[in-house]
């Protein structure tokens, strides 16, 4: 039971982290594109 809950929380955190990383990379890409 605890393992399943831990896996669910870890998956949610991983998804949120991936979204944040993608947003940061997107903003960086836009900035570099504007610079060039």
UniProtKB/TrEMBL annotation:
Keywords: Membrane, Transmembrane
Protein name (Swiss-Prot/TrEMBL): Putative transmembrane protein
Source species of the chain: Toxoplasma gondii GAB2-2007-GAL-DOM2
Lineage summary: Eukaryota, Sar, Alveolata, Apicomplexa, Conoidasida
């Amino acid at each position: 039971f605890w393992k399943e809950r831990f896996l669910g929380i870890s998956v949610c955190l991983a998804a949120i982290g991936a979204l944040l990383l993608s947003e940061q990379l997107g903003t960086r890409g836009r900035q570099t594109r504007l610079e060039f």
